[in-house]
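Report of the visiting student (M.T.), summer placement. My assignment was to run the structure pipeline on a short list of targets and document each run. The first record concerns Succinate-semialdehyde dehydrogenase.
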Amino acid sequence: MTAYPTLKMLIDGQWIATGEAGEMAVVNPSTGAEIGQCPKASTAQLDKALKAADDAFATWSKTPGAERYAILRRAADRLRERAPAIARVITAEMGKPHAQGLGEILSACDTIDFLAEEAKRRGGRLIPTRGQALIAQMVTHEPIGPAVLLTPWNFPVNLPAKKIAGALAAGCTAILKPAENTPASAQLLVECFTDAGLPKGVLNLVYGDPGPVSEHLIASPVTRKVSFTGSTAVGKHLGALAASLMRRFTPELGGHAPVIVSRHADFERAVAMCAATKFRNAGQVCVSPTRFLVDKAIYDNFVAEFAERAAKLKVGDPGADESVDMGPLAHSRRIAAMEQVVADVGGNRGEVVTGGAAIAGQGFFFQPTVIANPAPDSRLMNEEPFGPIAGIVPYDTIEDAVRIANSLRYGLAAYAFSGDLDEAHYLGNSLRAGMVGINQLIVASPETPFGGIGDSGFGSEGGEEGYLAFTDTKLVMMAKAGG
Ligand code: NAD
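After the run finished, the structure tokens were exported:
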């Protein structure tokens, strides 16, 4: 059993256990037990972190890409070595089963590696000039400046790692404010960077109440870039503040991913993948498949098999039993949110085929839930559930399915299963989302851009976009000195 670490902030290279604004409890969602006390930064402490990031930017932004690469690669190696222990802390803080936590961390290592390589690899470009007088038109990507990184609890290592690696690789300094319920996961990640030899002030870590801390950091004149992952409502609020101050802003927000299952799909493969992926991380994944739109010819079988698989999942405390398939929800608010979704179906507004209720006990457990034929205006079909609830509806034509899939303002991920080449092509082209998965449900890898459209945000993390998101584009047009 990994001991829960003493929580400390990192400000200007110093680990600080005392929060001048007090402390907040960290709770294990599987047991409801308090596992730690997290220091809360005062505005003076936030200002120190901002000053440290500002001071360090002068040297870090000029550090050669090859040196930034070497430090980031060492950090990824530290993270790989420590992955099993850190995965246990993820389990304790937010209830993710160990194997899923381990997978998250190893994927974060690969992302850090990829972005580190961008620091060596990424150049600018030369654009041909229009006349003899000009010698060169040179485009470069300059680090924006100190970045504020605001991350949620559902991927408490991978999401901070993506943002930190993108910022640091590009030559930016950063202040990370992780979610209040998963501070240790972030702290152990940040330690990998400091142990890898990162100079002081380049990366700072602060904790506290998310609203006031985020707003103070964004409003500071030091801050040049804000990267936020979380809900659409908070993203819009923080985005309005960032825009009013001309801070560059990348929001990665909620989603409500549709999955179209055609009569031409490999049925067994599709239903097995859908049922397994829906309940990963208890459905608390922004790209989680959620609205299943199934051809009416295969609908009844799909519902029956999906529900059977859901009902068989082993739900429990992953800290006590590593073989559980699904842990708890991250906190009690999520249980209340699931209950509201279920309360909105029934009668002619949908049928709970399996699950539908919280599981009694100290932890925040909710049954894997399948709802057949939820009404078009139900919460489930319109609001991101962010939990272990799947809605399945039949469709008549593939065009109807696409219309329902594209009917919401969200546009993060969308998926489709079809063995018909023309239809698969049509679906890939017609689904309106930042990321589309065809015949599989994975839309993230270290090398590829990750991001949404519409109410799911804009811009991308990961891939080369995850590096460029922390840069300003600069043009240098050079003429002969003698005219
Ligand atoms: P929540 O909005 O209370 O918290 C979600 C995250 O936002 C937390 O990390 C929190 O620290 C942060 N946050 C909350 N209020 C904030 C504020 N005023 N300023 C800055 N940050 C703030 O919701 P919750 O119940 O914990 O999580 C569920 C909701 O969050 C869902 O609607 C889901 O869309 C969203 N969420 C999205 C992602 C994602 O990957 N896009 C991840 C986690 C949560």
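The mean pLDDT is 97. The chain has two domains: 9-253+457-475, 257-446. I thank the supervising group for their guidance throughout the placement.
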